[in-house]
Inverse folding.
């Protein structure tokens, strides 16, 4: 089942309608109150990720499920930024050592900002050193929290493991996928309820 697609803006226009649709989906699928609240929290956090990455945006927002797997999606057109704004985003990503990026949600916000700006990531070592969970094939670019989580665990990267343990969204969501394809930037948050 899929909710209506709602157009939301950075000002929060129609956000409440979109969140109400998520709750409606949860109620229709007879999720517990706790699971319904988790789904709504993930929707709110998704909005905050995108809002933190771009001061001015309009995006499509929806949720859907197949059986007990739910996905909340926000999709926006890659935007044209001023050269100064692009340089600011590049400075975040080019070193892989951004001191302003502290947690996993900040990393996702930064990656979304770079992708939304339409910046060519092939010349940005910071994006590829965004690290584990990153995948580039042809013109498609994705990053997955699930793959990131697995890789940092396998490589015993204690600071990264600690960073993930502090993120509410990273602990509630099963996966967060950030990607760009055909000039569309998309963030998907996945959650399966038993």
């Amino acid at each position: 089942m899929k909710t209506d697609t709602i157009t939301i803006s950075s000002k929060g226009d129609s956000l409440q309608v979109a969140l109400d649709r998520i709750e409606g989906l949860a109620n229709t699928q007879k999720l517990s109150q706790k699971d319904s609240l988790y789904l709504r929290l993930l929707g709110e956090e998704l909005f905050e990720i995108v809002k933190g990455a771009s001061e001015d945006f309009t995006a499509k927002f929806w949720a859907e499920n197949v059986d007990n797997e739910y996905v909340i999606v926000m999709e926006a057109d890659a935007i044209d930024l001023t050269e100064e704004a692009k340089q600011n985003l590049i400075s975040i990503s080019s070193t892989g050592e951004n001191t302003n990026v502290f947690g996993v949600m900040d990393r996702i916000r930064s990656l979304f900002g770079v992708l939304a700006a339409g910046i060519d990531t092939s010349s940005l070592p910071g994006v590829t050193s965004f690290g584990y969970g990153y995948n580039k094939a042809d013109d498609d670019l994705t990053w997955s929290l699930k793959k990131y989580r697995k890789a940092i665990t396998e490589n015993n990267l204690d600071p990264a493991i600690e960073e993930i343990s502090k993120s509410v969204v990273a602990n509630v969501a099963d996966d967060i996928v950030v990607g760009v394809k055909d000039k569309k930037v998309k963030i998907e948050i996945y959650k399966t309820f038993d």
Remarks:
- The longest strand covers residues 58-66.
- Strands lie at 6-9, 58-66, 69-77, 134-137, 140-144, 175-181, 184-192.
- The radius of gyration is 16 Å.
